[in-house]
Write a structure and sequence with these properties.
Elements lengths: L1 H26 L5 H24 L9 H17 L5 E4 L4 E6 L16 H20 L4 E9 L2 E8 L7
Protein name: Trafficking protein particle complex subunit 6B
GO biological process, one term: endoplasmic reticulum to Golgi vesicle-mediated transport
Subcellular location: Golgi apparatus, cis-Golgi network
Length: 167
């Protein structure tokens, strides 16, 4: 079964890199082509995140608090996407959550010398979109940013919009 999952994961990676190339080529004639490509990739992640969380939680009871939602994202949703949980969750107990994946699958094949490659920014934009879309479908409006302190660790910072507070 694990070999099957690896094959599916590799197929997705190949497809994803082709999508990045496609968006890059389609927007290269624009003055803000790279920014536009990042926006398109993030929106694609957002839509996929919405759909996948809706399917994943279809028969689940409603979450009662924002922290419960974020914990589900760290365990159930992340595990659904990447076959592993988020490594660490930190919060200021107000409106900021930092989800740390110490071995983020999309970065495991990236060399440190490639850290500033434009495609890495698109990889992170897609992952931020997945998180933002999933959280949005669960009633949490937010902004998600990502940073790489060192490969393959990734920190996702979720800033919750005041109007979406569910706790």
């Amino acid at each position: 079964m694990e070999e099957h999952c690896d094959g599916v994961r590799q197929s997705f990676e190949f497809l994803f890199y082709e999508i990045i190339k496609y968006f890059t080529n389609q927007t290269k004639h624009l003055s803000d082509g790279h920014t536009t490509a990042i926006h398109l990739i993030e929106n694609m992640g957002y839509r996929i995140g919405q759909r996948s969380i809706e399917r994943l939680t279809k028969n689940s009871p409603r979450f009662t608090s924002e922290i419960e939602i974020v914990k589900f994202i760290c365990r159930g949703y992340w595990s659904h996407l990447f076959q592993k949980d988020i490594s660490t969750l930190k919060t200021n107990n107000a409106d900021v959550y930092v989800l740390i994946d110490s071995d983020f699958p999309y970065l495991t094949r990236i060399e440190p010398s490639q850290l500033y490659n434009p495609s890495v920014e698109m990889i992170l934009a897609f992952a931020c979109g997945l998180l933002r879309g999933g959280l949005s479908s669960l009633g949490v409006s937010c902004i998600v940013n990502a940073e790489i302190p060192r490969i393959p660790t990734c920190h996702f910072t979720v800033r919750v919009s005041p109007r979406s507070k569910t706790s």
